[in-house]
Amino acid sequence: LSEKLDKALHVLKGHGSITEVNVAETLKEVRRALLDADVNFKIAKEFTNTVKEKALGQNVLTTLQPSQLMVKIVKDELTELMGGDAEGIDLSGDPSVILMSGLQGSGKTTFSGKLANYLKNKKTKKPLLVACDVYRPAAIDQLHVVGDQINVEVFSDKGNNDPVAIAKAGIAHAKANGFNVVIIDTAGRLAVDEAMMTEISNIHEAIEPQETLFVVDSMTGQDAVNTAKAFNDILNFDGVILTKLDGDTRGGAAISIKSVVDKPIKFIGTGEKMEAIDVFYPSRMADRILGMGDVVSLVERAQDQYDEEEARKLQKKIAKNQFGFDDFLKQIQQIKKMGNMKDLIGMIPGASKMMKGIDIDDDAFKGIEAIIHSMTPEERTNPSVINASRKKRIAKGSGTSVQEINQLLKQFTQMSKMMKMMQGGGGKRMMQMMKN
Ligand code: GDP
Ligand code: MG
């Protein structure tokens, strides 16, 4: 989508003012782009009509270039369409019960884990996961694997094939054991059918959750809209979770679903890892759709992952000039924890374009890690002792070349210098600036 829009907006470049002609031309492209992203035809048409009215009504005597102005109008309108301000989830109950719904494979189980982990990290929340997918024994095991990964208890009852009873027992277990959030993972089917709808609506009626979330795979495009409508008709759900936004970003689903069911999109899933969850911000999604990247989410995710304790220790070390390769290694591990490298790069404006065709994966740091592992503790804490013969030994041990060692040492020196510069609030200020 973003590539198409880039092209569309490009049409406007070089024109001195917004005129009927170039607006029409641009909007034709914008509409085509939206349709390509599986946005419903009617919605796309309404959208471009609104943009057109706004664009032509604009005073061209502004400081913005016509193309910038157009981007702004398209962006504002997209944001509006996707729901204005970000909305949270209702955690007022004791325990607050959150019910997951959606088709099989949409990402319910994965998202249940991500949400539990997200809430657990908020410190005041103690979540319990409840396994109500009774059709496949593997489904229960899957939730247990997820629970183990994030250190969250999973309530299940393998012999029992009554999801309503399990959900109730899970909530009772939570009450008796001091859990204040209960996340209920349910079964889905490959397509909407009556049995599934009856089952989820029975669970819904029996437990009266604070939040009923509809989980949908963002790659399913137009189908997502029909599914969302079917579930909403039965459950009148509270919010939408858009998963798999890490792949070929199809913002289209976000736009269509929101306009068809008029329910807020609350979170997005951006990968298979438990950390790959973000609050949905319509304006950031609009930026993303428009190819501006998503710096704000990236910065927030980085901050979230970053253990404050570690940060303080690190600052002390930097101040005392004790920053070494072991710390560097820790930094790399922090970066890796944030998620898949491709996701991260996709959030930096312009970077995905630059990186096109270059294969970046989680192995990107492998060479660096190998080199550091081949260093002695002394070399790691005091890299200045690394002379020519040591370099040769390290290169041999790590299966790299002296040239690569030199490169790493240079990068390391630069990084240490930069970190020293960012001390004293400079770094914080930069983060703040990026946030605003
Ligand atoms: P469920 O049947 O609704 O419970 O779906 P699952 O949680 O089992 O997910 C189905 C598949 O999608 C699994 O292979 C997940 O790893 C994968 N998946 C879930 N969420 C995401 C996401 O945000 N990004 C990507 N790339 N994969 C995801
Ligand atoms: Mg599942």
From TrEMBL:
Enzyme class: hydrolase
Residue sites binding GTP per the record: 102-109, 185-189, 243-246
SUPFAM superfamilies: P-loop containing nucleoside triphosphate hydrolases (SSF52540), Signal peptide-binding domain (SSF47446)
UniProt-listed GO biological process terms: SRP-dependent cotranslational protein targeting to membrane
Keywords assigned: Cytoplasm, GTP-binding, Hydrolase, Nucleotide-binding, Ribonucleoprotein, RNA-binding, Signal recognition particle
GO function terms (MF aspect): 7S RNA binding; GTP binding; GTPase activity
E.C. code: 3.6.5.4
Residue ranges occupied by any SRP54-type proteins GTP-binding domain in the UniProt entry: 264-277
Cellular component, GO annotation: signal recognition particle
Catalysed reaction, written as an equation: GTP + H2O = GDP + phosphate + H(+)
Pfam families: SRP54, SRP54_N, SRP_SPB
Subcellular location: Cytoplasm
Function: Involved in targeting and insertion of nascent membrane proteins into the cytoplasmic membrane. Binds to the hydrophobic signal sequence of the ribosome-nascent chain (RNC) as it emerges from the ribosomes. The SRP-RNC complex is then targeted to the cytoplasmic membrane where it interacts with the SRP receptor FtsY.
Domain notes: Composed of three domains: the N-terminal N domain, which is responsible for interactions with the ribosome, the central G domain, which binds GTP, and the C-terminal M domain, which binds the RNA and the signal sequence of the RNC.
NCBIfam families membership: ffh (TIGR00959)
Subunit-structure text: Part of the signal recognition particle protein translocation system, which is composed of SRP and FtsY.
Family assignment from sequence similarity: Belongs to the GTP-binding SRP family. SRP54 subfamily.
Protein name as annotated: Signal recognition particle protein
